[in-house]
Amino acid sequence: xxxxxxxxxxxxxxxxxxxxxxxxxxxxxxxxxxxxxxxxxxxxxxxxxxxxxxxxxxxxxxxxxxxxxxxxxxxxxxxxxxxxxxxxxxxxxxxxxxxxxxxxxxxxxxxxxxxxxxxxxxxxxxxxxxxxxxxxxxxxxxxxxxxxxx
Length: 150
Prior knowledge:
It contains 4 helices and 5 strands. By secondary structure, the protein is of the alpha+beta class. It has a 5-stranded mixed β-sheet with strand order 4-3-2-1-5. Strand 1 and strand 2 form a beta hairpin. It is flat, with a radius of gyration of 23 Å.
């Protein structure tokens, strides 16, 4: 039985929300699945991802193949990097403690970058009006007449 880690679409029309699931290849996209391992909301900026790293890692070790989008999500969350490090431990290149240390270092740097990106997006969402900001426009309402014309 081939197993994939893929997205299962939920949400209304033009408002997608996805579950990250482990499912049999033959099952329909939104149909039966084996296990739910996370969620993905592409509408937020930046996109929000909730993922159980350990479950995803276990399924990858069992041979589950992620789809392209899920592969990017797993890479973003560090699951593929952790799998890579654990493979190095298995081959005897370094020990388990140093692998976890490398992962923790990467995770800390990644969190700082994400916090910085989130702050930048929040700042750009509501630009302040000031001397260098965009000019304020007057909104005309129905029934209001403009300045008296002579």
